[in-house]
Amino acid sequence: DSGVTQTPKHLITATGQRVTLRCSPRSGDLSVYWYQQSLDQGLQFLIQYYNGEERAKGNILERFSAQQFPDLHSELNLSSLELGDSALYFCASSVDPTSGGETQYFGPGTRLLVL
Amino acid sequence: GESVGLHLPTLSVQEGDNSIINCAYSNSASDYFIWYKQESGKGPQFIIDIRSNMDKRQGQRVTVLLNKTVKHLSLQIAATQPGDSAVYFCAETYSSYKLIFGSGTRLLVRP
């Protein structure tokens, strides 16, 4: 158990809908990262937050957004869902990537199925 | 590359043998490397890491070797056990935020 929690574990929804995925980082970790893993694309970095502020963006679609709250938990919002958004979504956390704390610990993931 | 999927390279070893999983990384400026293990339906699990100022690091039953000259990373698992069966990913980072994952390797341990 990495200490990172994600809810829900599974999510089934329809095209055009909007969903919210939730992540709680390990105790003491300030940075949260979101990744998407699909069969044909592997693990793709989406976005990073550090202590409530967006730090870096990767291959995140405009239909997707995220935020990190004062208690450091994070939410990933996926809207206007398409079939191709079906994937595993992972959250990871680290202590402080700017001072040697780059090791990212991953949560169990949320499996999203868009029908 | 960053792709992994149905056509993962597979390493099949006999239980008790040593396993060596290789990875070619992409950026010569990368300064931190991590090996992750991912079991089916689970998140990547940290195994071992190494910084670019080192060429070898040992953990419990695992050793990571780094060859910066040829941008190559390897993971050695001693006395491989059935529980080691999983997909293994190397990851590199050069800006302390974005992990770039290599192509995974599926390890199968034969009893």
Largest sheet of chain A: 7 strands, mixed
Helical amount among residues of chain A, as a percent range? under 10%
What does the overall shape of chain B look like?
globular
Give the ordered list of helices and strands of chain A: EEEEEEEEEEE
Structural class of chain A: mainly beta
Low-confidence residue ranges of chain A? none
Structural class of chain B: mainly beta
N- to C-terminal distance of chain B: 32 Å
How much of the residues of chain A is beta strand, in percent? over 45%
**Beta-strand residue percentage of chain B:** over 45%
Q: What does the model show?
A:
The complex is a heterodimer of chains A (115) and B (111). Helix content of chain A is 0%, strand content 52%. Chain A contains no helices and eleven strands. Chain A has strands spanning 5-7, 10-13, 19-24, 31-38, 42-50, 53-57, 64-68, 74-78, 87-94, 105-106, 110-114. In chain A, strands 2, 4, 5, 6, 9, 10 and 11 form a seven-stranded mixed beta sheet that branches. In chain A, strands 1-3-8-7 form a four-stranded antiparallel beta sheet, with no helix packed on it. In chain A, a hairpin with a 3-residue loop joins strand 4 (31-38) and strand 5 (42-50). Chain B is mainly β and 111 residues long. Chain B has no helices and ten strands. Mean pLDDT of chain B is 89; it is low at 1-6. The interface between A and B is medium-sized, with 28 and 27 residues.
What's a concise summary of this model?
The complex is a heterodimer of chains A (115) and B (111). In chain A, 0% of the residues lie in helices and 52% in strands.
